[in-house]
Design brief:
The chain has about 375 residues and is α+β, with helices and mostly antiparallel strands. Among the domains are: about 1-65, no CATH class; about 75-145, 2-Layer Sandwich (GMP Synthetase, Chain A, domain 3); about 155-215, no CATH class; about 220-265, SH3 type barrels, CATH 2.30.30. The chain contains 9 helices and 13 strands. Strands 2-1-4-3-5 form a 5-stranded antiparallel beta sheet, with no helix packed on it. It has a 5-stranded antiparallel beta sheet with strand order 12-11-10-9-13, with no helix packed on it. Strand 1 (about 1-10) and strand 2 (about 15-20) form a beta hairpin. The longest helix is centred in the C-terminal third of the chain and has 43 residues, at about 275-320.
């Protein structure tokens, strides 16, 4: 049976499990442990607990409980970190490097120093590392971090008057979006919804789920509801007080409770001009009516053409004159058979009779087979 203890190396930092072994520890004790970077000193967050399951293979064992000498060494390391910080800031200013130094951390055995900095892009700090290694005679590591990590390391007071969440109890950063501020009816002012780091406040995520659950019991803004005095459209919804601001059809503003709503989506007697839903539903019907009207007009235009064509055919079939119809130019294909028939003396076909000024010509030629004489009207 193993004793597992949870420790942290800095306030509100990540927690790690270690095997306490036979060492008796309590919450708040300082211990010396072996990490991947070397020796480190941490604080017990959770007291040891007995676990029956097998211990993970990669878990480390606590070396010892921190002694007064270890605590004195920790104070000397803090002084050395401040000196290293001032020296590095001077070198950055002298070299005019586009970076901001945030913090310096030394390992408990002073085997390595880590310099945390922020920058907009990549920075060439090779010359700076040479200066630091030459001055402090230890391994130097430069690590670039984000603005939220910077606020966590430096700390400060938030707009609420309390210590920043990230440096007091928030161990991991959660993604925050503007949608969370909109759901809570907050003013979208960057100065009011942004923290010290310049990003959106982490506390916007705390009550977001509660607002989403409560909002399901209230009608959405812009929905039409009915009350005892009439009907109107929801203008605002205050979830904390339970008040609903309603704009009636006569442009009156009333504040009601959720229980006063009779029904949602009441029928509209006279739809307003600004009702986009009625316009959207009427648009397809109007387009169909317009299309039908166009088809009717097209048919009406085509009808006279068909009637005039039928009248011409009827006149030709009945061998009557059509005064209203203008004479068309003779076709070569129709004149050639007529000329051949005139030469041979054969009677002409009724389909190829020629009409001039409304007079008919005789059906056949002369008795001697010649060309028939011209009509008196020619």
């Amino acid at each position: 049976m193993s004793h597992i203890v949870t420790i942290q190396f800095a306030k509100a930092s990540k927690m790690y499990d270690f095997d306490a072994g036979d060492i008796e520890l309590a919450q708040g004790d300082q211990v010396v442990v072996e990490t991947e970077r070397g020796l480190g000193i941490g604080q017990v967050v959770r007291p040891p607990k007995e676990r029956d399951e097998a211990v993970p293979a990669n878990i480390s064992t606590i070396k010892r409980k921190a002694t007064p000498d270890d605590l004195a060494t920790l104070e000397q390391i803090a002084i050395k970190e401040k000196e290293s910080f001032d020296f590095c800031v001077k070198r950055i200013i002298e070299r005019n490097m586009p970076m901001k130094l945030v913090k310096v951390e030394y390992q408990f055995d002073s085997s390595k120093a880590v310099f945390f900095f922020t920058a907009d892009g990549r920075v060439d700090f090779r010359d700076l590392v040479k200066d630091l290694a030459h001055s402090f005679h230890t391994r130097i590591e430069m690590r670039q971090i984000g603005v939220r990590d910077e606020a966590k390391m430096i700390g400060g007071i938030g707009i609420c008057g309390r210590e920043l969440c990230c440096c007091s109890f928030l161990r991991d950063f959660q993604p925050v979006s503007v949608k969370m501020a909109k759901e809570q009816n907050l003013a979208l002012n960057p100065n009011k919804i942004s923290g010290q780091c310049g990003r959106l406040l982490c506390c916007l995520d705390y009550e977001y789920d509660t607002y989403c659950c409560l909002r399901k019991n209230y009608p959405k803004s812009g929905k039409r509801v009915s009350i005892a005095n009439g009907a109107g459209v929801v203008d605002k919804v205050n979830i904390l007080t339970g008040n609903i601001t309603l704009k009636l059809d006569d442009n009156k503003i009333v504040v009601i409770k959720r229980e006063e709503i009779i029904g949602e989506g009441a029928a509209v007697t006279a739809a307003p001009a600004s009702d986009t839903s009625s316009q959207r539903t009427a648009t397809p019907a109007q387009s169909r009516n317009t299309q039908k009207t166009r088809e009717r007009r097209t048919e009406q235009r085509r009808k006279p053409e068909k009637s005039s064509l039928q009248s011409v055919l009827q006149v030709a079939a009945d061998k009557t004159a059509a005064a209203a119809v203008s004479p068309a130019a003779p076709n070569k294909a129709s004149t050639e058979p007529q000329q051949d028939a005139a030469k041979t003396g054969q009677p002409r076909s009724k389909k190829h009779r020629s009409r001039k000024h409304g007079h008919r010509k005789p059906h056949g030629g002369t008795p001697d087979g010649g060309t028939p004489p011209a009509s008196s009207g020619a």
